[in-house]
Amino acid sequence: MEAKKVTFIEIFQSSFPVSETEGEIEKENKITKIIIPMIQRDYAQGRTDEEIEHKVRRPFLEALYNALTNNPIILDFVYGDLNSDGVLTLLDGQQRLTTLFLLHWYAAKKAGVENSEYAFLKNFSYETRYSARDFCDNLVDFTPLFIGKLSNEIFDQDWFPYDWKNDPTIDAMLTMLDAIQEKFSLLPNIWEKLKNGAISFYFLPIEQMGLTDDLYIKMNSRGKPLTHFEHFKADFERNLSEYLSEDRVTAIMSKIDGVWTDLLWQYSKDDHLVDDRFLRYFHFICDIICYRNKKSPHGYECDAFGLIGMYFNRSNARAMENVNTMEMFFNCWLKDSLGCTPKEFGKKIFSSHYEQGKVKNGICDIFEFCLNYYGQNPYSTIARTVLLYAVAVYLQNKDKINETQFIRRLRIVNNLIKNSGNEMSDSDDRQGGNRIPAIIEQVDSIIIHGILLDNEKKEIGINFNNNQVREEREKLEWTDKHPDLAESLFELEDNDILDGQIGIVGLENPEYFGRFLKLFKCRRDLIDCGLLTCGNYSRKAGKYYQLGTSNYNNSVWKTLFYRSQATRYDETKQTLGKLLSETREFTDDLLQEKIDNYLAECEKNNTYDWRYYYIKYDVFRPGRNGKYEWQNVNKPYELTVIWAPKFKSENAYQPFLKALNIGRLSAEHYGEILLLDGNIFVTCHQDKYLIYGNGGKTEIFIKQNENMLDNEDRILKMRKVIQQLNT
User: In degrees to the nearest 10, what's the CA dihedral of 610, 615, 618, 620?
Assistant: First the structure.
């Protein structure tokens, strides 16, 4: 049977041969429903990253636009498994047909056509998640006003739960709808042009794709229909048979049905989803093949069948090499090779906290994580891909690397991953291009040879964060010279705040390692104030200065202690070092005593800089995000506490006003005006307070020394002034 050319509308009106028994065609069946099965990846053409936008979404929409305005287009082949009930399970063409579904919905709603004309859209469904399925169903019933962005209109509907925004398929569909609206909003008669065949494709049921009759006969003799995974295996076997010997193909297919399935079964006893887990790991292997070829897998229509055609078809010059790669990545997890189960191995090398001889990682069984979540954002990340790759490389080279060497090298890779968040990108469009191929090469060098390739010497392309690569190289040399101190360094690395980046403490003072750990077992508010008694440890990131807070928000302290684009790193390190140098032990009581002594010394000398007020008065430390604004650092008493994490909101306030404990801060002026009873208000300045009222103003000057530091507690003084105003 030849492929049939159809439009998206026509496919729901067309009949195709359906085999029911013994491979014989008994009838032609009309397609009643098209479903995207669970094994497919999320809808990708609507992803928001620049590579998808510029290389996939825009060109595809441009091609559709040209088809509707100039020359009709045929979108190549689409195929799937059509059962006797008329349900078509889509196996190739998911991305194209999803975009056509959205375009037809937009065209129908924009034209205001009768419901009966677009009712067929109800028969297109996503089975990857219930949320994606329900979204498609509700979308067909919804008619927008076309006021503003479509996504915003949809967000506002009662049927759209907030958590649907976290579904990557729904998020991608909304992005595509906005892009369709932007591209097609001025184009007339879209619906009519779609009905007249401007966009079509070739459809062929899976039976016509050349799969072996033996497989169909074998499955039908058991009275069972072919599953998606069996279609996958048949297609995979057909491709391998074109360039491998019969014995080699038989051996590989036997492993898929035998030892590799047994490997995955231990993770599937409860839900029996062995096939899904196989395909997720297969996706992982294909992505690694792509990275090793110095390319990015994103931007392709990468369902399992597409991956076969991309990497295992005879047209790929490296197809045989790719088969070998796949075998090694599966075989390395087998018990005969591993010596234990993957789960037992994970517990042996990973721990959720510092533990001697292990690597700290929140997911002990990284292999299981891949089987359950790979390719399903937001759970699957490049960081976890690289970590799993590092472990698999070791398992494939166990004869060259002992376990102690491996743990030390994996610790290096783990530290690099944790501290290269901005660099872990496989986008070709970002500065420096796609870094993952170079990261993979760096991992190979570290795990197999114990050598960190040098970015700066151009031994390798841009990969992990340069500062962290340099630090890891220094730590490796340091532990070689000081093996007796290695574990104390590793324990410091595994602190929740540092997460592998220990430069703020430094290798030059190993006696500080344990002191830092003791310090950060104390109350964070006391640590914050204790550091300020030693100096101004703040750092500036963007418009605002960062300080610690009274809560346990580790991200605040990471901003302070990590090398980054924030300024004043050396000043922060120097201040921390001064505190750590003063004592071997740190407790809440010792820190409180240090703070009390500092305040007493300031009061004794009648010298009150901004740090004194910050430490003494709680309103300076609201326990939020630790963000502060000095518009002029030479005027430290003109200070604003930033309440929101990234911007100046109406909840911001001037702490020198709020500490007066009277009146109301004006939200309209970011809390920089204190409103008193009547028409009186107060502002704070570097050397004075100003009181406005009754048509005039009163200046309350603060005594200051030659360095413009207060010689009197301005807050106590101003409280008395206001008290007198009220008497």
Answer: 30
Sheet arrangement for strand 539-541? 539-541, 544-546, 627-630, 639-642
Separation in Å, CA 101 to CA 122, 150, 153, 181, 666: 10, 15, 19, 14, 51
Query: At 360, which amino acid appears?
Result: K
What span, in angstroms and rounded, lies between the C-alpha atoms of 398 and 334? 13
Q: Who contacts 570 (Cβ-Cβ below 8 Å, separation ≥6)?
A: none
Q: Of 180, 189, 4, 165, whose CA–CA distance to 78 is shortest?
A: 4
**CA–CA separation, 582 and 223 (whole Å):** 79
Could you tell me which of 519, 721, 546, 518 has the C-alpha nearest to residue 626?
546
Tokens of 558: 């990471």
CA-CA-CA-CA dihedral for 49, 78, 130, 368, to nearest 10: -70
* Residue 246: CB atoms within 10 Å: 9
Six-digit token pair at 135? 């979204």
Parallel/antiparallel/unpaired status of strands 544-546 and 87-92: unpaired
Q: Looking up tokens 């990131």, which residue turns up?
A: 541
Place of tokens 């006969």: 217
Angle at the Cα of 598 (from 594 to 599), degrees rounded to 5?
120
CA 245 to chain centre: 42
Say which residue the tokens 């297609």 belong to: 235
Please give the DSSP secondary-structure letter assigned to residue 358: S
- Residue 332: which residues within 8 A CB-CB, separation 6 or more? 338, 392, 395, 396
Phi, psi of 444 (to 5 degrees): -55, -45
**Cα gap 648→641, rounded to integer Å:** 9
CA torsion through residues 93, 94, 95, 99, sign: positive
Give 536's DSSP letter: -
Q: Cα dihedral angle (635, 636, 639, 642), rounded to 10 degrees?
A: 120
Exposed/middle/buried for residue 371 (C-beta within 10 Å: 0-12, 13-18, 19+): buried
Dist CA 716 CA 702 (whole Å)? 11
The DSSP result for 454-471, as a single string, is -TTTTSS-S-S-HHHHHH
The amino acid present at 639, given as its one-letter code, is L
pTM for the full predicted model: 0.69
Q: How far, CA to CA in Å, does 99 sit from each of 199, 299, 463, 506? A: 12, 15, 35, 53
Question: Cβ atoms within 10 A of the Cβ of 157, count?
Answer: 12
Name beta bridge partners: 490.
Answer: none
Cα–Cα distance measured from residue 470 to residue 457, given in angstroms and rounded to the nearest whole number:
12
For residue 259, the model assigns a pLDDT of: 93
pLDDT tens digit string along 40-99? 667 888 888 776 787 778 888 988 998 899 888 887 778 788 887 888 888 778 888 999
Read off the pLDDT of residues 221-262 as tens digits, 9 standing for 90 and up.
333 444 668 778 888 888 899 899 999 999 999 999 899 999
Residue 649 one-letter amino acid: S
Contact by Cβ (8 Å): 37, 90? yes
Across-strand partners of 665?
Answer: 674
β-pair type (544-546, 359-360): unpaired
